[in-house]
Here is the input.
Amino acid sequence: MTQQVLPLFEIFIRSKRGLDHRHVGSLHAEDSVQALEYARDVYLRRTEGVSIWVVKSSDITASQESDVESFYDPMDDKPYRHATHYKLPKEVDNM
Amino acid sequence: MDSKLKTALFDYCTALGDDSVVLGHRLSEWCRNGPFLEEDLALTNVSLDFIGRARMFYSYATELEDKGRSEDDIAYLRDCREYRNLLINELPNGDFAFTMARQFLVDVYDMGFFTELAQSKDPMLAAIAAKAIKESRYHLRRSEDWIKRLGEGTEESHERIQNAFKQLWGYWPEMFEVSDDEQQLLNAGIAVDRSRLKSNWESTVHAVLKEATLDIPAENWAIGGGRDGKHTEYLGFLLAEMQFLQRTYPGQQW
Here is the structure.
């Protein structure tokens, strides 16, 4: 028997209505239809969710370790982008 | 309910439980032997659905019987001739194609059967059926998918799945034979008239086989007897393995 490696899929599950889909893991399947079925069997055995997304791992473009400096460091010295940077007038109770 | 009808209903429930527990056990044999991890988990999930179904039928049967027997007694302490499952369920798994072909034929049957049983005048059977339909719909989605994948896959997968249907072909007519006991329950509006499920079953199965580029087998042999306790040589071995623990250590529990 020839051992064939099936494509990898990333699985996202919405645990409750109103919440976002969260990445829960990955699995192998022949295509997205099968990946959806396996996601049900692998990740929803204990009723962990109400909706599933499957995405082919190779379709995800991810930032690289080498991007860290140019991607994230420039944000470190811009505290004014945080709401907590601003003093609120007393009249504002909640923000 | 008169006692004759009650006995017939007890027999009906155990037979339906037998169908489920035997197929559930067969599928459990795939545990850790699946072709790959995801499919291994999926197969054993289906297995557990069938074992759960058997528990519901058996526990209702013991309630009807009211002799203090438990569902475990029904499953583990009856011998071959007392088992009345349809033969197709007890056949050894064979290769993956054979397992999926059998599963597909049973899933199509189960969809038709439980849809009807959900209309039963017996509220407990109707409730079990309503739960079973949801499971079977998923089982069928999976098995139908596999029939198409294997049929349209490689030359080898096509040959294996075609061969599996050929070997299984003589076992499906039994699914639509109504026994005398059943007839009695049928008249009372409790049982399902299985003979009426046949044409829908055939058209669904034929359509999927055709789509999977498979030939409808031309076999014209048919074998039955499961509902009368007459089995293939394979059931004894299955029960020996399934029942050994309870028979060696009576009363053991999880």
Summary: Chain B is about 65% helix and 0% strand.
